[in-house]
Amino acid sequence: MSRVTGPSAPARPGRTGRRGGWSGQADAAAADAGTASGQAGAAAASRQADAAAADAGTASGQAGAVRPGAAGPAPCDPGRPLRADARRNYERLLAAAGAAFAEHGADDTSLEEIARRAGLGIGTLYRHFPTRQALLEAVYRDQVEAVRARAEELLASEEPGQALADWLRVLVAFSSTKRSLTSALLASFGKDSELLSSCSAVICGAAESLLARAQKAGTVRPDADARDLIRLVHAVNIAAQHTTADPGQSDRLLGLILDGLRPQEPKA
Fold this sequence. Notes:
Layout: H1 24-31, H2 44-56, H3 84-104, H4 111-118, H5 122-128, H6 132-155, H7 160-189, H8 194-216, H9 226-241, H10 249-261
Helix pairs in contact: 1-2, 3-4, 3-6, 3-7, 6-7, 6-8, 7-8, 7-9, 7-10, 8-9, 9-10
């Protein structure tokens, strides 16, 4: 199945002088774009600087790295594993940003608010995400990865038709929260950007796999098309935007779509 790829945001320069008593060699190692722990000839002070840079997530080698089990590279995710506390901070910031964007929109949410929700300082946020754009990209990729991962889980289920229905509900929820994200990303990259194109390919690939399995099992009509399903889910979300006083509308509309996917009786 396709994996998400996309442009990575530039990494922040390493910070020096974080701990008293560092030698000039340690400062240089922390600021150096490599800061690899196995750097030839590095002294003990240099290794201490490397650990501090890894903890802060500031090594410039982090750009474009792939997280274990992730669909693709996440902006500012380090090239080597973060220490446990830095990893927790990264995930907390992603979760807080996703929730804030869903509630208020990406344009109306300040970075300070996201840091506050995560229980972290604004400096920690900037160490992981040097720019607002980097955070938007990371949240978007993270949400697409969750949709892809759920599809993989459902592909192993015993009921192909129910698996497709469950995943379409996941897609409805994803589409309702991504609106402001995609608007902000479109403003920066355009609809034909590599980031949005690759994420779209991942979603389409998941839909095609689940649909083909359900069709093979005979629980979905053979003329159904994966891209049509994605368009219908998008239409459900557009309708729901204009009737916010009816929270059950999305589920009812999706139920109509699922009824239409059932195999049709032969006409007499």
